[in-house]
Amino acid sequence: MTEVETRPAPRRNGVRDLVRPDRVHGSVYTDPEVFELELERIYRQGWVFVAHESEVPEPGDYVTRRIGREPMIVSRGRDGKVHVLANRCAHRGNRLCNAERGNSTTFRCPYHGWTFKNDGALVAVPMRTGYSEEFLARRSELGLAPAPRVDEYGGFVFASLSPDGISLREHLGRATGAIDRLLALSPTGGLDLRAGWMKHRHFSNWKMVIENNVDGYHALFTHQSVYEAVREAKVSHVPSKVEVYVRDLGDGHSEIDYLPEYSRLDEEFVWFGRAPREKLPRYVAAMEEAHGPEDTHKAFVVGPPHTMIFPNLFLAEMNIMFVEPLAPGETIAYTTPALIPGMDELNTRMLRRTEGAMGPAGFLIADDGEIGARNQLGLAARSPEWLMLARGATTDVHEDSGTVNHDKSSETPQRGLWQHWASVLDAPEGVNR
Amino acid sequence: MTSATETGSVRTGAVGIDPAIESFLYLEARLADEARYSEWEALWDDDGLYWVPMSPDADPNTDLSYVYDNRRRIRSRVAQLNTGSRHSQTPPSMMRRLLTNLELLDRDDDTVTVGSNFVLYEYRYDMSVWAGRVIHRVRTTDPERGPRLVAKTVHLVNAGAPLPTMAFLL
Ligand code: FES
Ligand SMILES: [Fe+2]
Fold it and tell me: Which end of chain B has less Cβ packing within 10 Å, N or C?
């Protein structure tokens, strides 16, 4: 299932030729050279989501992640700062930390005993007499390699493995609004992402996974079994019946926006199984106390974002998902609920909703995974060469909020994503976007 | 995996297990293997709980699980599989599982709890092998209706790994 079609390599400056306004070339999902170029240009040089601050709340807390192929440690130092460090011993390269998460002020390499502080500094080299004074004097240069750039927005920590490039704010562009929209549902403005990440192996290209996250066209077909057997969709998936928009936010970010429909209904918690307020008394009280009744009502109506933040973070309403590309035809998706700190009555429901919808056995995502795998299998056929993204191309409207289409089934998000993708891969040497 | 029911004294071998209960467990396994969804669902009692945790010591109140189906959601899962358009199980995986090392873990007036190991061969695009520990809690009090499944917990050996889609009945 993971065999990869080899095709003529695109010339670095020929990536543009693989993307047209209304179509994309099949090789972008299968070509190993495209994949390598993506790892370099998007995952090394650009900003990628690595962790949420709530995952490392106390000094010493750490989680291990990957940026592209590179193993990283995300830790909170004694200084309270979040550090993103290469998980590679500075002596001979041993992967230093082998747990998914934990708490430790130092990491001691089991190979020859070099010990590093959780901010990366080398603090001990055993049997130091074997080293020259000169070498030992330069010990401070032998720490764990920090990610050259680390920044956060709303508790979401991003890193770049390149020292130069645009700021995180520039990278996020209009997508900060989506994070704000999610945080507006928390009385403290914080989230708790510690319920555990569901890890789901998708046998499809990572871009297939992220495009699908903002594809407003597929639900009626891919998820037919849910609507038929389990429950009606929260709002109709027939595009002509609802005011659900799709939007290319620019910079590769895109979304399905339920806000117009929810506002029109002016009903609270449509996005949360239409749970009545009485079922969530503590949460409602905390929200009203923090934000006042009016803003609380608004937040409950408007609900969470359904927004893909390029390249790897998906605000999946009350779930957070991030993707990790493994190979041209293989991707891991990590999913956890966006719990609201201390709101147990809400959080237990949220756990059950995430399990119902998401992950390898989820009512929704299992089928997305299956369809994605078949997509990758289909792409082994080299004709026709192009995949079509023309839906709604003539009805897109340019607004301050981005390029919007009032028909949720339009392929506006994908068009935006691909234009950005091409501009990143095609950017001149030294220009990191 | 060291739940309270497992740390108690284990009654040795399958000897302590009523043959009717043992047969019931094999039936449950076979119905799941053969994608006989409605018949499988009929084995469940009204308070059934089907749980596939992500780690051996998970607490479902605070930790995310792969599957945490109460009776209502079991019904939904089966209904979805029965539509024929649950793409991830259309057509259903070909499966056979071995249920071995049966041990009686607990017994009260109402129920018996049996722990066992399983190996499941699943063929879909490729052959996959799944393995783990399964704990069945079976209610035995209603002779009319026969044994009823109250709880089934599946601890996958590779629960910590990125798992491929598993929309079949574990
Ligand atoms: S490789 Fe880590 S101490 Fe030698
Ligand atoms: Fe989907």
Answer: N
